[in-house]
Structures are given as structure tokens and as C-alpha cells.
Amino acid sequence: MSIVLFNLYFNDLPVTHGRKFIYADDICLAIQGQFFSELECSLSSDMAQMSHFCRQWRLKLSASKTISSVFHLHNTSATRKLSVNLDGQRLRHECHPTYLGVTLNRTLSYRVHSYIILFPRDINHRSFKFNTA
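The structure assignment produced for this chain is given below.
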């Protein structure tokens, strides 16, 4: 879908709990909270609203291209994965998501991204296991 058509469709997105960050044809829903259960509930609700909006316009969100991620400094929850649903399907959790070409980690540092940029031949960043600290 061209960017102009995308902008026409998504100019009037529904109100959600989280903030929406839109660049070209990428949309990021971001929510802040103290508890994982709160985040999961809010994100699942927001995804349901977005899915309903898309169905009204005869569009369909791709669950296989949609991911969930969590950013925090709580080391004991470093391996915690969010359980967010889209149309009854659990979204894949990504520990090191790439958004607008920048690879992030749970602390929102550029450590993983810097390593990928500095040593592109050393790793295949999709299969390499990073230390998340």
C-alpha cells in the first residue's frame, strides 16, 4: 500500500490507552505501566480496537508481522515475555525489536544496535543471543 493511501486510511485512528507513533507505514503502540498484567491487558485491548478499525475499512492486521516488546530495568524480569493477543492469536514477543532501522533492547540502550553496526559480518543478528544486561 502506498504511503499516501496508508495516511488517508490511518488519519483517523481510534482512541487507545497507549500512544501511537507513526512513521511512513509503521505504527507503534506504546504503553507505560507498573505491572506486566496491566500492560498486557491494555495492549490487547488496544490491538482489538485497531483490528476493529481495520475491519471497518476492509483491512487486516498481520499477526505474523506484529510483535510485542517490553522495555524496563527490572533485572529479575529480564526474561519475562508479554502475552498480547490480536484476534485471538498471541503476538510473538521480540526481545530485540528493530524499529525504523534501530535495534533496541529492554533497557533502551544502543548496545545491541552498536554491535550489529560495528561487527556486521560476525553475527546474524536474528539468531545471535545477546546479553540483555
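Interim note for the steering committee: The longest strand covers residues 19-23. The mean pLDDT is 84.
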